[in-house]
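Appendix C reproduces, verbatim, an entry submitted by the partner laboratory led by Prof. M.T., so that reviewers can inspect both the input and the predicted structure.
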Amino acid sequence: MIDVHSHIVYGVDDGSKTIEDTMHMLKEAKKVGFTDIICTPHYMEGYYEVPCKEISSKISQIRDLAEGINIKIHQGNEIYANENIMEYIKSGQATSLNGSRYVLIEFPMQTKPINMDQVIYLLLQAGKVPIVAHPERYSYVRENPNMLLEYIEQGVLFQTNYGSIIGMYGNEIKETAKKLLTHNMIHFLGSDNHRVNTVYKNIPEALKTLEKLVGENKVQELTTDNPECILNNEEIEIDEPIELKKSIFGSWK
């Protein structure tokens, strides 16, 4: 398995605080079956602005210390989206996932940003493939999951958190994640791990739930095959998304 979303680089965002915590998380990840981790520290203008060179230096140190753990570590960012996103990438302030065409982006949790379409347009025009992190956690996606359909049609991909599947962010987010997964609107899973002894220890439970939801082949696709395409900068073939319907009680199904 390949983790496409993690905050294990110490001292650069709200994730790992120390090198010891980072090593602990790597051991946890290896134990539950990860072979590769893409490090995606936040890049958020005015809050988290550690340049790629500094993160790269820390990743080199982590690789040296983690030699005996036998897990591969790759560089990326989770970029808080705004109209300057391509400038961040071009200048080396932030980076795509493993230097590929794939860019992990995050939007506000509570209110759909008015510049959402513009940010996606800028990335697509530059030949990038936007991967939107954890859409199930956005209130406006929970209100209308079908909003993802138009973006998928444009070439946008979506990543769900393992923790969402087992209710780590609450029941409403869990139910939305399940609906998105069963309607082919999710293309990757990621841990979004920030702390020791949290997400990674719950991966086996999440995988069991996921297999019941979508089957073994789809689990392989979401956890390994599609993430491997990111690492190799290869095109990803996706299943046709399925529109959700509303029940007579107003809930999505």
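The chain has one domain: 2-231. Additional entries are available on request from the coordinating office.
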